[in-house]
Amino acid sequence: EIDYISEQYKLKLPESEDYETLGGYIISLHESIPKKGEVILDENYEFVIDEVSDNKIELITVRELLED
Asked: What are the two backbone dihedrals, phi and then psi, of residue 32, each rounded to the nearest 5 degrees?
């Protein structure tokens, strides 16, 4: 779940009733299941989609965006 990931990896991911997982959050940003290799951005992070199946994101690389 997204709150567990945030706590374990010290991330500042937003919580919402619209999603429970990191994959769900990314889908809410992208408005569909992204393709392998796509990069999705939010205010604080870059999410690189490393692996997807027909109906979910399987593997994601998360990079923190640093302020200039």
From this structure: -170, 175
